[in-house]
Write a structure and sequence with these properties.
Elements: H1 29-34, H2 41-56, H3 62-90, H4 94-109, H5 115-131, H6 133-139, H7 153-158
């Protein structure tokens, strides 16, 4: 908050969602779960599908698994861009908010072939953010956790390591 004083705060979470919100016919379970979080409908939809498939003992084709991973990664990237746009707005960097919003929208609408171009544009934005003096000063060392006790995947990546269990190196 950069020196501001917080007078009051309130947090909300989907953790512990009421069971009655999920009760109902199995045919609509996937969409009920997907509706829990408007910023992550794909994640919740796929979680519901996995739960039903597991309960039914149904296997899933490898091509379907890869398509699902791609959908999850697209949603994850879109959420990161959404966060970056909000951050840009909060700190008064309209150029950052606008560019991140534009890239998020482009990513959500893109075909598989267009994603490579968007990835290049996101990398350009990341380099511009890294070169922005005020951001570099404010964010230096933020998010780096010195001892992750062997963590891998997104947790290690968020802590500053290049290790990612989702990618074979």
């Amino acid at each position: 908050l950069d020196g501001d004083t917080v007078a009051e705060a309130e947090a909300a979470s989907l953790v512990g969602a009421r069971a009655e919100d999920l009760n109902g016919p199995v045919e609509s379970f996937v969409e009920r779960l997907a509706g829990l979080d408007p910023l992550a409908p794909v994640s919740y939809r796929l979680l519901a599908l996995r739960a039903i498939e597991s309960a039914a003992g149904v296997g899933v084709d490898e091509g379907v698994v890869f398509a699902r991973v791609g959908a999850l990664e697209r949603e994850r990237a879109a959420r990161h861009l959404n966060w970056l746009a909000s951050f840009g707005y909060l700190i008064g960097y309209s150029w950052l908010a606008r560019r991140a919003e534009d890239l998020q929208l482009a990513l959500l609408k893109a075909s598989a072939e267009e994603i490579a171009d968007i990835r290049t544009d996101v990398r350009k934005l990341a380099r511009r953010v890294e070169r922005t003096l005020l951001l570099r000063r404010k964010l230096a060392g933020v998010g780096n956790v010195p001892d992750l006790n062997g963590a891998t995947g997104p947790v290690a990546r968020a802590g500053g390591r290049r290790t990612d269990a989702r990618v074979k190196e």
